[in-house]
Amino acid sequence: MEVKGAVLLYTLAGLMITFAGFSALMLTLRPAAGAKWSLLDKYLARTVMTHIFVLTAGALLPPLCALYAMPETWIWRVSGVLFALPMLLLQVTYPHRRRKVIGSYPPPTIFAVFVVLGAVVTLAMLAYVLQDLQYSAAVYITALTIDFFTTVFGFMIALNMIIEQPMEVPERKVQR
């Protein structure tokens, strides 16, 4: 049995993994130029990879559940809970984790989009799919997509901050 939206879910999973690879490449540019990784660089890499892999798992959960011949209503409920709980935890604790590592809270734009919008969308999706309403598949996939693009947005803003950081290229010893 193929679950509703399976092709879109597989496409999202592929897009998410591609983005993870792209973001990892972008984050290696500064060290490749001779600069040391800053705390922000390391934190961004860890945060983006964690979010992307939770999102990818969320994209693969419904087809995985369908393999066990679960009724469709349960596919979206189980997937909703298994995706939403870790995602909400990541979204809501982001400001605290960032402050703990970087020493400052996220900029207001990042907070509004990455934390507030992301968490509201995830929570609304969870409430919707647990009620077993008509468009649970569409709501689940829409929330997954919005959460993915909030992560992309957060990465692009943070990447801009990283690019603006001074290179601090260490002096190289001259061999004689």
Tell me what you see in this structure.
By secondary structure, this protein is an all-alpha fold. The protein has one domain (6-164). Helix content is 78%, strand content 0%. It has six helices and no strands. Helix 1 packs parallel to helix 6 (136-164). The longest helix is centred in the middle third of the chain and has 31 residues, at 72-102. It starts with 5 loop residues before the first helix and ends in a 12-residue tail after the last helix. The model has no long low-confidence stretch (mean pLDDT 89).
- Poorly predicted sequence stretches spanning 5 or more consecutive residues: none
**H and E string:** HHHHHH
Kindly estimate the percentage of residues that lie in beta strands according to DSSP: under 5%
What is the number of domains? 1
Computed Rg = 19 Å
Report the end-to-end length measured between terminal Cα atoms: 70 Å
Number of helices: 6
Oligomer: single chain
Sheet/helix structural class = mainly alpha
